Amino acid sequence: MVENNDDIKEAIRVSLDGDWVSISKLQIKLGWGWPRAAKTFEQLLKLGIYSERDKNMRIKLIAPKEEAQALIDSKETIIKYDLSVNMIQALTISQMQDDGMINNVKLQVALGWKSNKALKVLEELSIMPIFERVDEDTLKIKVSKQDIQKIIDKAIIK
After folding, report:
1. Roughly how many angstroms between the first and final C-alpha of the chain, as a whole number?
2. pLDDT in tens, 133-147
3. Which residue intervals of the chain bear CATH 1.10.10.10?
4. Does the pLDDT of residue 38 top 60, yes or no?
5. Architecture of the structural domain at 82-157
6. Does residue 156 sit in helix, strand or coil?
């Protein structure tokens, strides 16, 4: 999961210059370190507009350049998250919270989960940029309910 939608858009721009992209090309063109370039590269693979990796670990843009440019110009989030069914259930519960918070107890009550399961799912959700950790078992929701629904709709269930 990539934490920065702008990173994906920058990587797509790089791929438009030469029709292909690799981790090292992202590092060189954008001045990124390996972890950031690798995470963003993996996210590009999930967009469905690139080929599989070739023997040189490059991916080629297979969609029309106009489609790639439309992703860059889009104001919407283009990240597709790999979400477990449990994460989707927790996101659905988060949409129902008027106080903008989701925590261990709310997940236990709403979904009938045991504390350890709720804490595990909260930990998985905490790395998503739409949440801010308040304390050990509470996350603050930083986006609208509509944005959460868009994430659920675009999710790749693992």
Report:
1. 13
2. 999 889 999 888 888
3. 5-73, 82-157
4. yes
5. Orthogonal Bundle (1.10)
6. strand
Dig out the tokens for 62 from the structure.
Answer: 């297979």
Looking at domain 5-73, which CATH architecture does it have? Orthogonal Bundle (1.10)
- The one-letter amino acid code at 63 reads A
Type of residue found at 85: V
> Rounded to whole angstroms, how far apart are CA atoms 88 and 93?
9
pTM (two decimals) = 0.53
In Å, what is the CA distance from 30 to each residue of 7, 18, 81, 102, 143? 9, 15, 23, 36, 28
How far is residue 138's CA from residue 72's CA, in Å, rounded to a whole number?
33
Q: Find, among 56, 53, 50, the residue nearest to 19 by Cα.
A: 50
